[in-house]
Amino acid sequence: MKLDGRRESSNVEDRRGLSGGGKAGLGLGGIIIVGLLTLLMGGDLGDVFKAVSQNGGFQTETSYEPTAENEALAKFSRQILASTEDIWGQYFLDNGLGTYKAPTLVLYTGSTSTACGQGQAAMGPFYCSADEKLYIDLSFFSSMKRQLGADGDFAYAYVIAHEVGHHVQHLLGTLDQAHKQMARMNTADANRVSVRIELQADFYAGIWGHYESALFGSLEDGDLEEAIRCASVIGDDYLQKKSQGYAVEESFTHGTAAQRMRWLKKGLSTGDIRQGNTFELKDNQL
Prior knowledge:
286 residues, alpha/beta, 4-stranded mixed sheet, two-stranded antiparallel ribbon, 11 helices, 52% helix
């Protein structure tokens, strides 16, 4: 991606170098995203739930010293967040959706407190609707490259845009409504709703990419392929097969590789939010 000279968002909390923080407890927003790297590394989601439900301490400074690569990723993240602010802000106005309220990006290392409970790097990036913040430990991008073979600026941008997509869902009321439905369902049915949430966030990430390319001409040869490759390797079926050798469809919470690629591509090609209502479709239509 060509981002030289692009502005950086000021809606950023830099908590790198802090650890611990507050009483834990996992909010539903965290449940939806939790476990990407845990599954990949063969871990048990139950262990993550236990870890994030324990009490933590106050945030304390550590001897953390960011590397040059980490600093470059932090700048890149601020630039991508700024792009989502510009694009979604204009999109909301142009389409009668009201005023777009930008989320805050929290950069942290290891763990941090959130309004949805204790955030941990093992969760991967996640969005918490209770405080309207998205949380990223930048080491996740290194793990993407090392563990998943997903690399490149636009692949990383897609991860951020996906979490911003959850914020868009929150602003439109979709996310909160889906959470209420899930709270009344058994696990299998709640997982099916979760898949729809995640696929729509992929679609919204695609919408952002559509206008990022049209307005700024920042995408270069291979950028789209990077994002699509990333979408394919964070599908539930791919991750489960990689970690345990088989996939259990009833446990899917994010969608298959094919579904994630399909909805990202649809957002990229259409740029039309009206075509992304994943909740009105049957399972076999996703």
